[in-house]
Amino acid sequence: MSEQEIEQKNSVRFADLSLSQPVQDALVDIGYETPSPIQAKAIPVVLSGRDLIGQAQTGTGKTAAFALPLLSMLDAKDEGPKAIILAPTRELALQVSEAISNYGRNLKKLGVTAIYGGTDFTRQFRALERKPAIVVGTPGRIMDHIRRGSLDLSRISHVILDEADEMLRMGFIEDVEWILEHTPAERQTALFSATMPPRIAAIAKKQLKDPVTVAIKASTATVSTVRQRFIKCNGMRHKIEVLGDLLETEERDAAIVFTRTKSAASEIADELASSGHAVEAIHGDISQGKREKAVSLLKEGKIDILVATDVAARGLDVDRISHVFNFDIPDDAEPYIHRIGRAGRAGRSGEAILLLTRRDFRKLRNIEDTTRQQMQPMPPPSRELIAQIRQTKLEKQIGEIIEEGKFNRERTSVTDALASLETDAETLAAALLKMLQAGKPRPSSSSASLDREPRRESRGARGDRDFDRGPRRERPIRDRDLDSPRSRPERAERPERRGEAPPPAGDIERYRVEVGHNHQVKPGNIVGAIANESGLDAKFIGRIEIYDDHSTVDLPKGMPKEVLKLLKKAWVSGQQLQMSRVGEKRRNHFDK
């Protein structure tokens, strides 16, 4: 099925599906507008109260197909749990619970808890004591809690079996049947399975009442002329860095960068614009007129990059788009197919590059399984390649200016400067070039840029091994992680307030830099970057304390503004220092 056919068949909108207003508002915030085929067919069935058999491949949007109507039907005033969702693996249980929390962001009292093995019971006991409306879990751990009396299913009104055939394959199906026997007979049940082996069909016949069957054949054909690759990244700031490098090094015409949220689209567009790219953002908060204007500018070649959410890019057809950069991986295969179809139009070749973190690994595999195509890993652009490309561009620009020949005034200024400074032309040209490039991360000899490649190697085999194992090693998000005061000072006693030591006295000022333990930085890296960028002798660089996500450094009082401006943009361990005096208000990119 072609991408155009998919869009024509999938003309239903979420607004047409009778979902509750808080759920619809959440979908607008997220940027979802058009349901996938399984969602369009299953949501009305679940809302009607009928039992459902949903047969669809992984990656077709099954989670939203049951989560959205479930959230619309449950009443936060009712004492929970009211719904139980069984999943074969802890990774899927976490993924489903996170998705439901996201869809239910406007339903503050409607709690969601994930229960799975391999973790401490105590935390799960406490979560269940709060009587969440929805419990998502693996069969084994759900059984454990039922037996211990910490999970009461007597009030359950909705049961969802997700990836039932996978639970059968993993040997959990007897556990599933045992759990179902502990739920009320009067309940609504939805069973989702990619295939329908006899054992699953028998369970459906026994446990479901007059079910409606919805079978969806997943779209498996991505655009054959588009090469698909992915790059492993270590978080949001690393993604920004890699995206900027790709935009410099990839031979491209126009490009579109896809993000999950509207706020990220705006922030990324701002970041790219500040680096000199001709870019516009399009998303749901931008008027239709401005969206059309941005697309028109792209078609005319007046801008080269669009940063967009999925909804804003619906129907976008621009022949000159050669590259699609997936800054965020979509939840399902359908939107991914739509995205990369923007490149390779009219039979031309195109490139689709996905920026991937460890948390996204399962989604990558789901998309590959659904599309039956494997994406190829690629390394981030090297420092040497970036230096070479910048040098080539510089020489080309200078050559064009020389060919044009209109620089008599500048020639006079250079002649005067040579006489006044008593230097040679080569030295003067190098100094002017450094002044021109001030504020950009240098890809050649600075300590900041040299430090970026070893950082990746210092994470080395272990970092790659953790990534390749997927999200299994990923530590679950805990409340204290969201704004953690936890700190690990490298050379100091544990500070008193939020990990900050008291400010220094005398002729020393304390500065904060946005690089820390999480970025594998060492004190010597920071000293080298400051000394090289500012020209300050290392002996005048004082106490350095390294925390999880930032560091502090003592410098002589009265540092010139020009030097501080350079230090803000210096790079260490793949991070810009963003240096600021301790106590100054800092701008945090990607604030949601």
TrEMBL record:
Compartments (UniProt record): Cytoplasm
Chief subcellular location: cytoplasm
Residues annotated as domain Helicase C-terminal: 241-386
Keywords: ATP-binding, Cytoplasm, Helicase, Hydrolase, Nucleotide-binding, RNA-binding, Stress response
Catalysed reactions, semicolon-separated: ATP + H2O = ADP + phosphate + H(+)
EC number(s) recorded for this UniProt protein: 3.6.4.13
Domain spans labelled DEAD-box RNA helicase Q: 12-40
UniProt-listed Gene3D superfamilies: 3.30.70.330, P-loop containing nucleotide triphosphate hydrolases (3.40.50.300)
Xref: SMART domains: DEXDc, HELICc
Enzyme category, top tier: hydrolase
Pfam family, one: Helicase_C
Molecular-function GO terms, alphabetical: ATP binding; hydrolase activity; RNA helicase activity; RNA strand annealing activity
Source organism, top-level taxon: Bacteria
One of the GO BP terms on file: response to cold
Comp. bias (Basic and acidic residues): 450-500
Domain Helicase ATP-binding: 43-214
PANTHER family: ATP-DEPENDENT RNA HELICASE DEAD, DEAD-BOX ATP-DEPENDENT RNA HELICASE 47, MITOCHONDRIAL
Family affiliation: Belongs to the DEAD box helicase family.
Protein's UniProt name: DEAD-box ATP-dependent RNA helicase RhpA
Species per Swiss-Prot/TrEMBL record: Pelagicoccus enzymogenes
